[in-house]
Amino acid sequence: MKIGVFTCHCGTNIAATVDVEKVAQAAAEFPGVTFSTAYNYMCSDPGQNIVKKAIKEHALDRVVIASCSPSLHEKTFRKCVEDAGINPYLVEMANIREHCSWVHPEGEQTTAKAIELVRIAVAKVSRDRPLEMTYTPIEKKVLIIGGGIAGIQSAIDIAFANYPAVIVEREPSIGGRMASFDKTFPTLDCAACILTPKMVTVSQSEHVTIHTYSEIEEVTGYVGNFTVKIRKKPRSVDINKCTGCGVCYGKCPVRVPSEFDQGLGKRPAIYIPFPQAVPNVPVIDRESCLWFTEQKCGICQKVCPFGAIDYDMEDEIIEEKFGAIIVATGFQQFDYSVYGEYGYGKFKNVITGLHFERMVNSSGPTGGKIIKPSDGKEAREVVFIQCIGSRDEQKGVPYCSRLCCMYTAKHALLLREHNPDAQAYVFYIDIRAAGKNYEEFVKKVQDEYGAIYLRGRVSRIFEKGDKLIVRGADTLSGAQIEIEADLVVMATGLVAMPDAVSLAQMLHIPYDQNNLFTEAHPKLAPVETITSGIFLTGACQAPKDIPDAVATASAASVKALGLMVQDKLAREPLIARVIPELCSGCRACIEACPFSAIETEEIEDLRLRRKRTVVKVIEGVCTGCGICTTACRMSAIDLEGFSNRQIMEELAVL
Amino acid sequence: MNKSQIPDHSPQKNSGDRNLKAPIKDFEPKIVGFLCNWCSYAGADLAGTSRIKYPPNIRVIRVPCSGRVNPLFVLNCLMNGVDGVLVSGCHIGDCHYSEGNFYARRRFAILKRLLEYIGIDPRRFQMAWVSAAEGERWAKLVGELVEEIKEAGPNEHFGGNR
């Protein structure tokens, strides 16, 4: 064994407090060390050349660099020694800067510590094993969970790069929340006009497969190699035979509240959620269909000219492989029934922002008329209450939902546009209009559309005749306010989907205390998760408006495409390794592994002359945490790069 | 066996360290710190980049996760005369590998009791949670640790083969 030790002055960063030459001299005496030198800047090109030259001249086979933190330059020196022909995993760093020269005063003790740190590194490097990068193949297909605007945009981007994408959408149509919006702030584009062309693009793309009315059942595998089970719920209509003619739902005798219209309108039991649905194929709601509830009717089957109705359709599970997964599952509205003082469910004329969107939509259930749901008369005095659920640690969520200020301003504007006699009152805590042209938009609503903004909370709402009395405070004037309103609109916040946690557990991605999915880094890796190959977009990560959802969708697509263009995936070899001869097959490591990276396998035990179960590490999944090594009673599983022998050797020289 | 029958091995009464002398003057303890790569090691790096001073008695062994630290490593240190051992990981809930520090916390709570039982001064083995942002905390922690180990005196429990 010929170990070379290279000690760095780092200008005066190390040399000011550590006697670098003395360290280099001391290192030369350590067992196995055949060469030791010091240089001003080891990481610089001349410094690296000194390393390379010494490796050649002195036939070194292992290297210790005594300089800064390995988080800074471990990669640099791995590359450096590899260039000189040594396996890159036969290099160790002694951190004599961050952990020594910078934190201790000049003197004997500091130099002595530096020498010891080098001694430890030399001990460790003597037990290093040459390791090779592992390569795993990549399945060139991207799964997108959720077919809202974020999922659609991701699919379009991936298809544009000529890679296949599969959208799995739970509802019968893609489109998501945006499909039910009327206009979008701050430009007042109609949501359908900008969304439906994208829906059509994605449905017609040869690279995109859409599974609507489907859910994710199971996800296994790892980056480049996910195996996903998708449950296709029975639509009861053959998607290949149906032409979308619409005869069936015209004839259906059932009428139930429409989910798409937030219960303001009715739909038949066989229905398409909205006219521009993609695919334009109806679905039978088996909960309300007479055929399924009472075994009678069957009209749709009789009238369908194409024989597309299939009452016997069953759940279908399909299994597909993917290289990357984009999670775009979106949000749900905060359930404001916790605010009993606002009379949810009791007062028909207290509605949410999403109700308002449907009402104000000219193709919606009221034909664009803003009415009081109680009697269908036009609403003139409308009170909007912001921060419902948002910024409320007691009853709601602590965060700001970010878009309620804007959509409330939009509602106030649309109210006046649809009914010039109407008056909007907005109760707010703060107006948060950070975004391009957002502040201007709110200003316009206040100045040109006469919306009255009142800073304060509403304390109570109660009915008086056919009016709602809204009682609150205007904290700016200090006055108590009472408004006789026809309609109250709650600006409900955005919260995680009810099943967000179970999906996160299925995908092995973390989620925060609000059940929102957690990004790998809030600033520098905002669309990645710590599980490589799984990316986030849209409101499943945090409340986002449409531009942000679209931007993160494209960002996530780029990250996924970055994987797709690789031929194979290089992975660090610093992962767990099993010594099958020592493994007793107790499976304690399988229990301990947070990543499900260990599985059992049968081996032929030559000594016992029979088959035996042992464990093996799934290379692509193992992250190299080493938790398994501590669980193993036999030390049959060890961690490359931080093996028991390496650490024990470090301790032995202390 | 009821509680009163359990032999009391707590160090206050029985000073298993056999260190009945007053603290030795100029005793510079040797302390080993097992630091997880993602939080505590980075926190110690931050103490460096922020130039926060602390005593030079600690030797850091880098491990990927506090869950990687085998209790044997700790025992090995103490048996070989290291005066104090620290295991430091990410704050609970912040583990880079999501649950490694839960294992560490539980495992070392047990080890600590075992060490007390066999008569090792509990000050000699400590656990801490230091994040990558807590350079100052790291420096303070080491300072306090060194003081405590100085009070505990040299580890001569296993004959002190240093």
Outline of chain A: globular
Mean pLDDT of chain B: 86
End-to-end gap of chain B? 40 Å
Helix content of chain B: 25-40%
* Helix-and-strand structural type of chain A: alpha/beta
The CATH topology assignment of chain B is Rossmann fold
Strand content of chain A: 25-35%
Number of strands of chain B: 4
Please give a structural write-up.
The complex is a heterodimer of chains A (654) and B (162). Among the domains of chain A are: 3-126, Rossmann fold, CATH 3.40.50; 333-495, FAD/NAD(P)-binding domain, CATH 3.50.50.60; 576-653, 2-Layer Sandwich (Alpha-Beta Plaits). In chain A, the strands form twelve sheets. In chain A, strands 10-7-6-18-29 form a five-stranded parallel beta sheet, with helices on one face. In chain A, strands 20-27-21-22-23 form a five-stranded parallel beta sheet. Chain A is an alpha/beta fold and 654 residues long. Chain B has a single domain (28-152), classed as Lumazine/riboflavin synthase (Rossmann fold, 3-Layer(aba) Sandwich). Chain B has helices at residues 11-14, 40-49, 71-79, 100-117, 135-152; strands at residues 31-36, 58-63, 84-89, 125-129. In chain B, helix 2 (40-49) links the parallel strand 1 and strand 2. In chain B, helix 2 (40-49) crosses helix 5. The relative contact order of chain B is 0.25. The model of chain B is unreliable at 6-21 (pLDDT under 50). Chains A and B meet through helix 4, helix 5, helix 17 and helix 18 of A and helix 2, strand 2, helix 3 and helix 4 of B.
